[in-house]
Design brief:
The structure is a single chain. By secondary structure, the protein is of the alpha/beta class. It has one domain (3-253): 3-Layer(aba) Sandwich (Rossmann fold). It is 49% helix and 14% strand. It is built from nine helices and seven strands; from the N terminus they run E-H-E-H-E-H-E-H-E-H-E-H-H-E-H-H. It has a seven-stranded parallel beta sheet with strand order 3-2-1-4-5-6-7, with helices on both faces. Helix 1 packs across helix 7, helix 3 (60-73) packs parallel to helix 4 (98-126) and helix 4 (98-126) runs parallel beside helix 5. The radius of gyration is 18 Å and the shape is globular. The protein starts with a strand and ends with a helix. The relative contact order is 0.13.
């Protein structure tokens, strides 16, 4: 039985991905700091084999423990790691606290770095796949989410680098680039704002993509040959614009 380890498995894209992979016969390891959320996700998987692992992705040593525990449960194999845990930090960059800036970098970037570093030996053994959650905000810098955008650019860059570096060892590395997925992260307000991201997206006339579509795209990434996997119309428009309409993208970003 193939096995996938999912960070951020207590909610959102991580939860939906766990449900999909379990339904298709995979063993699932859920990792999160939210133990109640993991329990809720595990309950949705029915009789599928699942283990839960409390993991703060900022803690490199904790990664070793969590992956070793999951490998023990799975008979020694880990076929895919979904580096998905992340947080949203928005609002005026200059008004954002040092602690919030650092936490965003530590979770969204270093959490992915540590997952790739700790997971390498398992993926090399299985000739498996690493999927890293970047964002449409990692396609073109997005005002109002400056530090978040910076971390997602970095995740995308790391993914592209490891795709080249690990290809000869049989490890597939993929980047998931979602736009506005209909999850609870959209209900957060940014620094100096009393408006949620959900309200701002709605006012801009942009779309919300069902979380199940993101989960299916993770499945496609694990089984496909691509490098960048876009999720949502906004992500696809930004991808096109960043390549062929950079002047227009710059004007749009200044509005």
């Amino acid at each position: 039985m193939q096995a996938i380890f999912i960070t951020g498995g207590g909610s959102g894209i991580g939860r939906a991905t766990a449900v999909l992979f379990a339904a298709r016969g995979w063993r699932v390891g859920l990792a999160d700091v939210n133990e109640a959320g993991m329990a809720e996700t595990a309950a949705l998987l029915g009789d599928a084999p699942v283990t839960t692992h409390r993991l703060d992705v900022r803690d490199r040593a904790a990664w070793d423990t969590a992956l070793a525990d999951f490998a023990k449960a799975s008979g020694g194999r880990i076929d895919a790691i979904f580096n998905n845990a992340g947080i949203g930090v928005g609002g005026d960059f200059a008004a954002t606290s040092v602690d919030d800036l650092q936490r965003c970098v530590d979770v969204n970037l270093m959490g992915v770095v540590w997952g790739a570093h700790a997971g390498y030996r398992y993926l090399k053994e299985s000739r498996g796949c690493l999927v890293n959650t970047a964002s449409a905000a990692g396609i073109y810098g997005t005002g109002g989410v400056g530090i978040y955008s910076a971390t997602k650019f970095a995740v995308r860059g790391l993914t592209e680098a490891l795709d080249g570096e690990w290809h000869g060892q049989g490890i597939r590395v993929r980047a998931l680039l979602p736009s506005f997925i209909d999850t609870a992260i959209l209900d957060n307000t940014g620094t100096g704002s009393n408006q949620t991201m959900r309200e701002r997206v709605r006012r801009a006339g942009l779309e919300f993509t069902p979380v199940e579509i993101a989960a299916q795209t993770v499945w496609d990434a694990v089984h496909g040959d691509g490098l960048h996997y876009l999720v949502g119309k906004t992500a696809r428009r930004m991808w096109f614009g960043s390549r062929f309409l950079r002047g227009s993208m710059r004007k749009l970003a200044r509005k």
